[in-house]
Structure formats: C-alpha cells, structure tokens
C-alpha cells in the first residue's frame, strides 16, 4: 500500500513538472512559434481544441496578426461552431481587413451555412481588392450556382478559366451547370460515312436541332434526315437534362422514325449523372432501340477532370441469349478555354447506340469485332457561335472474319441567342 502511494505521488509530481515546463515554454514562445504549433495540432494531430488554445495565446502576444485570426476562424468553422467563427471574422471585418484569405474563409463559412447572399457580399468585397483571385472567383461561382443563378455562375467560371485554364474544379463546375444556363440554341450537323466493302453507297445524315436552356435543365428537339442504302429516312428526337440537386442530374431521351432499316422505329434512354468529389463524375443508365426486335443496352461511365484535361471511360453491355456483348470507349479532351473549346481523342471497340451507325445493331452484328479511333475539335467564337468537326476511323468485322475499313466525318454549327 505504501509502495503504491509513493508511486502515485511520484507520477503526479512528474506530470506537474512536465506541465509547468510546457507552460513555461509556451510563455517564452513568440506568436509565430505558437502559430506553427497550432497548425501542427490542427493538421497533423487533428486536435482542434488544442490548436484554438495556442492560436488564442498567439493573438494575446500579437492582436493584429491577421493570419492567426483567420486561422482561428477556420478552426471554429471546422469544429462546427459557426457563431464563434463569425465573431472572429466580424472583428476582422470591422478592422477593414483586405486580406484575400480572410474573405475566402469568411465567404466559405457562409456558403457552407447556406447563407448565399451574405457569402456573395463577402466574396464581392474581396474581389474588389483581389480581382484576379482564382479562389475567390471559384467561390463566387459556387455561391451563384447554389443560388440557381446559373447564367451568372457560368459567366464567372468562363472569366476564371480565362485566368486559370488548368483549374480542374472550375472545369468540372462549368460542365456540370452548362445545361442549366438559360437561352436558346439552334444547330445543324452533317455526317458522311464511307465504306470500303460493306455497303456500296456512302451514308449521308443531316440533323437540325433546337435547344432551350432553362433553370431546371435543357430540352432539345432534333430532326434527322438520312440517306442510307440508297433510301431516305427521317427521325424525330426529344432529349432533356433535368437537374435534381447539386450532385445529381439526368439524361432522358426518346425518338421515333417510320423509316424501317434507316433508323430504329423507337428509341429511349435514361442516365443518372453524379458530380463526385475530387473532380470525378459517374453515370449509369440504359439505351433501348426498337427495330424488328428490341435491343437493350446498359451503360456506365466514369470521368475525371485534371487541369485542362477530361478523361472518360465508358462501357455498353448488351445481354444476349447466350452471353453479354461488350463495347468500350476511352475519351480524352484537352480544353483550351471554356466548356466549348477543346481537342478530343477517342479509342474504343464495339458499336455504341450514340453513333450514326446504330442501325447496324440489328441481329447479331453487334457481337462482331469493331475497333475505332477518332479525333474531334470544338471551337467557340464570341461564345455564341460553336463549330465542331470530328473524324472517326472504324475497322469493322461485318461478317465473321471479314473486315471493312470505314470513315465517319461530322461537321456542325450551333448558334446561341
């Protein structure tokens, strides 16, 4: 018993001595050293409470040290104490602080708390002092997007990408919201397909479209006129891209044609898209084509924005009587400016229901081997005139072990108004 008591007293004395030493050390540390310790506690040890104590000690030594005050406000934000964070930020605002990081931290707090008007006020004030700040420009675009002011958000993102074209977060957001930007668009495309052996005649397809962009999503009506196998045909299509939330939006499509063999009689499709963290996006959906029989295809894709690049991998799975047919495609785009200016490369195998060759999916032909590779280029002029051109080469097994070389060229023009 006596031995236990002595051990306890010894341990207590050692703890007391250690605490006194630490206190004495803290008392001799300057504000920069305390700030460094606070950051270590926050980022390395995830001990926000200890970091707050160290930050407050540092501010007692240097009350006008803006970086430490901003850090303290961020700590309260991360600890889910918005009122405490606001008190810190409001004190800085009363001092007419113009620091960029202050406006970013304060604006982010209000954005995360869904106080969009207050967040916009703070960010605009910061941009008045730092008009080229990419972080503030991106935050403003996020606030405008959250407020469903999509056209303004799109304008802000284009301004940001002009300053910083490698900004992955801005690239992701501008592509996510472009279908929600209000306005009208008309377009025309011409597609030419040449076959070495499979068919004697070249194919020609002209498409005319009208798009209406609304705050809830885009709606597109398209009419396609085709000459295939020496015969003419017409197809009507309706597509929509409704926005469900900040993270999710959809593709919905349907089409009709009474031109047997030229187009499918009916077509439908639906996909759910998700904008994921770290500039990833994902999709799952289906496509259905009605010829003499229905062809059902299920699709999934994953995409990633990295600086100026967009990478995408997609598959189509077509269940058959005996097995499942696979189609794969990989796409890389290099964006030169906004969402409508890029070079693209695609490599894949199999036939996709998105191609002008969709009527070749009848019977068992979709189970034959097909390799494709292509290039595309999109260019915008004054944001309202959109030009596109693509060229795709196919090596097609149209009969078992009989192959054909085919060329597909498409040019297009769209006008926004």
TrEMBL record:
Alphabetized SUPFAM superfamilies for the sequence: TPR-like (SSF48452)
Swiss-Prot/TrEMBL keywords: Coiled coil, Signal
Domain YaiO beta-barrel, first and last residues per copy: 184-355
Signal peptide region: 1-24
Gene3D superfamilies: Tetratricopeptide repeat domain
InterPro entries recorded: Beta-barrel_YaiO, TPR-like_helical_dom_sf
Entry coiled-coil feature ranges: 136-163
Superkingdom in the source lineage: Bacteria
Name of the protein in its database record: YaiO family outer membrane beta-barrel protein
Organism name: Sphingobacterium hotanense
UniProt lineage: Bacteria, Pseudomonadati, Bacteroidota, Sphingobacteriia, Sphingobacteriales
